[in-house]
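Ticket opened by: R.M.
Priority: normal
Category: complex prediction / small molecule

The reporter submitted a protein together with guanosine-5'-diphosphate and asked that the result be attached to this ticket for the collaborator who will pick it up next week. Submitted input follows.
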Amino acid sequence: MSDSDGKKPLGLGGGRPGQVKQSFSHGRTKSVVVETKRKRVVVPKPGAAPATPGKPSLGAGDPSRRPAGISDAEMERRLKALQAAKAREAEEAEARAAEERAREEERERRRAEAEAKEREEREREEALRLKAEEDQRRAREAEARAARKEEVRKPAPAKPAPADPAAAEAAATRAATKGVAAAGPRKTDRERDDRGGAPDRDNRNRGGRDESRRSGKLTLTEALSGEGGRQRSLAAMKRKQEKARQKAMGFGQKAEKQSRDVQLPETIVVSELANRMAERAADVVKALMKMGMMVTMNQTIDADTAELVIEEFGHRAVRVSDADVEQVIDTVEDKAEDLTARPPIVTIMGHVDHGKTSLLDAIRKTNVVSGEAGGITQHIGAYQVTTPNGSLVTFLDTPGHAAFTSMRARGAQVTDIVVLVVAADDAVMPQTIEAINHAKAAKVPMIVAINKCDKPTANAQKVRTDLLQHEVVVEAMSGDVQDVEVSALTGKGLPELLEAIALQAEILELQANPDRSASGAVIEAKLDVGRGPVATVLVQNGTLRQGDIFVVGEQWGKVRALINDKGDRVQEAGPSVPVEVLGLNGTPEAGDVLNVVETEAQAREIAEYRTQAAKDKRAAAGAATTLEQLMAKAKADESVAELPILVKADVQGSAEAIIQAMEKIGNDEVRVRVLHYGVGAITESDIGLAEASGAPVIGFNVRANAPARNAANQKGVEIRYYSIIYDLVDDIKAAASGLLKAEVRENFIGYAKILEVFKVSGIGKVAGCLVTEGVARRSAGVRLLRDNVVVHEGTLKTLKRFKDEVKEVQSGQECGMAFENYDDIRKDDVIEIFEREEVERKLS
Ligand code: GDP
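Result attached by the on-call engineer:
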């Protein structure tokens, strides 16, 4: 029996149930529990009848059929031999059966393995198709391959291994594809088995997790997250992968509102704004409507409005003031060592007639005053003078009329020092205060020139005390503002004034770098007959040279010639030098900045960009009207009559002066509206605009060109030429007056007192009156006054004198009067008689 014990491993564990896979068609499989029964070997006890009737060949099995003559001993020996033979035979049969079973099992296992392999193949293909977890999958494949190798290796030393590990393996692999839960516990079994066989692989693949596994315990979390991570269903892995990808691509927080940096130029079309915020255009239009802006998505809005919208949507506005094209303009900060002193730029300000022009003139020693048309300085230039101590000073030839206020404000911006002219025979006047405010706002230091000190009525001290009220404390009053008594007429004090300027300039430490591309400001621009557009530029930094390519405002050009303040051609102009620049492609505006650039292409590009930007801005200003504005305009349109005009002038300064003068014309009922103004000849497009609006075209020191003249004749557009602003203003006033409704003026003509009240049938109540003053007239209007209170106003129904209907009753005479539609008249009431007349009005 020890033999059969030794062979135990070959069998199925002595009837232990095992699992065998059954295959069906369509690739379905099923594990079934099989129980293999071992053939019972019965060894008959000595003397006992054999349990199974053996072959009676020798008759050994049956003692009763024992041949006679055989001894007992022999018999026993034979019996033993027979038993041994039988046992051997049984054992051999059993071995054969076991062998057969093992072969069967091996086949079974191989089939299961093949199936597992095939399934794995399918899985891999699927995984490949889904591109899911490339690395993890590779790791698993590697593992699976290792496991297969292991399986192949395993049967050699343990050929008769029970079928269940293979079946379990197959089941586990199958479970892995179907769900995690089923895989868990079974896997652990397998893991434990596997680990025994290949601990290296486990360590390699699972690292630190090995420890927890070896403990044999498996929590649900571990089952799901640890090994489960790899063994999760493909769908789960796919979801995970997809999530990671979406997160990486930024779709992750769809629910969360994204805050963006929105690039915001000076103007933007609504739809483009929506685009940049990644919002719907309709929503943006809606938001604008809520803000009171009636715009469509194709309209342009300004940056301020757009910024409000951007904030409304929870984004951030990033203002981009200049387009990329502007970046070629050299804006590098100068190094301290490159800087050298530059002359101060001085603007003379003050009230009209306080002697600004005279003073400028006296300083320049030329007579500008006599050349003025209409008494207004129309040419704005600049010039340089040398002070007694040899330094240079640049004077801006700023006009002094109130119409030039805007120009002066700009002048103050390029200005380093303001000379405030106050006439000693006058006092601080409105424009003096304006000038003080301009200087203070621009943070420009002032020097007070007390002018007309030659006059006997001059009182310089009064000027100084007057200035105190406006927080200008001069040195003579222990302040820090220099004051100089001058006379433009006699030239007294002028050297002192120049010295004061030089001193102030020294304090300011004005510096510039002459060795760089020039930048400057346009002080004046005009369209010159023969020379084309000309701009007077005050170089602020760098040096402007002949041949330089530049961009100035919306224009560009190449310096053809530079002409200085003395009318001489120069090759270059350094800091603080005013020069006339020739070679522009168009007329810039006063206040425009000139920048030298490297190439014509750059200059042209910047100019084009600025032109477009300005156009957009104008469109935005026109389009983006708030509701209030719309309503105010509608209201205004009802009551205010407008006289539209177009203005073309020779220089910017004149044009601006005219605009300002025009703005002052008019009142609550009438106003002048300047549709368009510009510098240069009157062109066909001006005529077109004028025709569309029914406006006359005003040419100030300019004429219409031939096509414009023809167009004007054809279209019936009026062109008027002027060279004196006052004439222009008077004419426009007269024209605007024509728009005024005639005034109805009331003239008092008489009083009558009621002496008695009668009742007359057919007429009603009639007052018997005495005309106390003036006349009573039938056609006139009447008021009934009772104790000096008007109780009725109307007309007369009848005016009688001695029963006769009359037209007029003179003072001192009695008469009868009855009111139209009014009866409540009493004794002692007073009747006021008046007439109305319509009077043509004029604008003052
Ligand atoms: P603006 O309007 O400030 O430019 O003043 P103007 O230079 O046109 O001068 C106005 C008037 O004052 C002119 O008649 C000048 O002759 C006169 N005027 C200017 N400066 C002086 C001065 O220093 N003394 C005297 N007596 N008259 C002056």
